[in-house]
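FORM 12-B: Structure-to-Sequence Request
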């Protein structure tokens, strides 16, 4: 298994794991891409260098160096980042981890997407905890030490980090718009690609085509056809870094017409070929230990 995950994209933690942690760095001008998406795990992103925007259920928020964002499972979110240097650590964990470890206070706090900041003292504490967690994860992600360090990090962030703004209304998964789209959202959750026309997708949700179109774009920031293409391409990106499948195998598994067509649309989206992406992504993944 290749333990890299540098693009924001729908994905599930490796079966048998309770969490994963990875650090990522981009040099100035290096290509970065993301789109409105969701995944089945809770996610902290602890930024080192960052300049851009975080789009989530509460709206849009401007990111600064050392900020933290939390996105709960199944909540749509997106990032638009400037071209300067950027780096962060991603900590993703199963929602059940909170219940299994009696973190009810933390679970209440982490119902929503939230943008957080720490004062200097607590930031140093969290950075040290992240370093310990990464080191322990690399040694043994299933160890009692790894799980205890994850629990400590969650407790510490919830206790000491302050929301940038208080806009909480309700989790997006409880909104009427999200619930109306759930039949289609479930397809994106469970399949690497979704082949439905706009009419078929609307019919699956038992709403009109025009209403479906407006509702889908309000949640995902892309129209349905754009989103299906991006979802497919991000699935291919995930397969390139988390499997040893060839580019030809991936192209046919995701129902591209030909490998050359797959390479063409992939390059249009990510500015590199699938082969370049696979090679460069592995080089960009950071595995620092203190």
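FORM 12-B RESPONSE
SEQUENCE OUT:
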């Amino acid at each position: 298994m290749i333990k890299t995950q540098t693009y924001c994209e729908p994905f599930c933690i490796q079966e048998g794991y309770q969490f994963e942690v990875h650090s990522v760095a981009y040099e100035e001008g290096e290509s970065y891409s993301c789109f409105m998406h969701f995944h089945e795990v809770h996610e902290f992103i602890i930024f080192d260098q960052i300049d851009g925007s975080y789009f989530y259920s509460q709206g849009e928020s401007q990111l600064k160096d050392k900020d933290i964002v939390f996105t709960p499972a199944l909540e749509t979110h997106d990032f638009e980042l400037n071209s300067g240097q950027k780096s962060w650590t991603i900590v993703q964990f199963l929602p059940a981890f909170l219940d299994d470890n009696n973190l009810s206070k933390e679970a209440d706090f982490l119902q929503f997407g939230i943008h957080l900041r720490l004062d200097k003292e607590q930031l140093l504490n969290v950075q040290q905890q992240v370093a310990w967690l990464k080191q322990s994860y690399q040694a043994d992600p299933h160890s009692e030490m790894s799980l205890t360090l994850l629990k400590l990090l969650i407790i510490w962030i919830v206790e000491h980090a302050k929301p940038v703004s208080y806009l909480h209304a309700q989790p997006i998964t409880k909104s009427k718009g999200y619930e109306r789209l759930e039949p289609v959202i479930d397809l994106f959750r469970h399949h690497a690609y979704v082949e439905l026309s706009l009419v078929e997708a609307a019919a699956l949700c038992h709403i009109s085509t025009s209403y479906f179109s407006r509702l889908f774009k309000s949640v995902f920031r892309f129209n349905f056809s754009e989103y299906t293409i991006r979802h497919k391409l991000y699935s291919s990106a995930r397969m390139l870094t988390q499997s040893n499948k060839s580019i030809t195998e991936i192209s046919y598994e995701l129902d591209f017409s030909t490998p050359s067509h797959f390479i063409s649309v992939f390059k249009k989206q990510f500015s590199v070929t699938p082969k370049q992406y696979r090679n460069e992504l592995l080089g960009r993944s950071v595995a620092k230990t203190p």
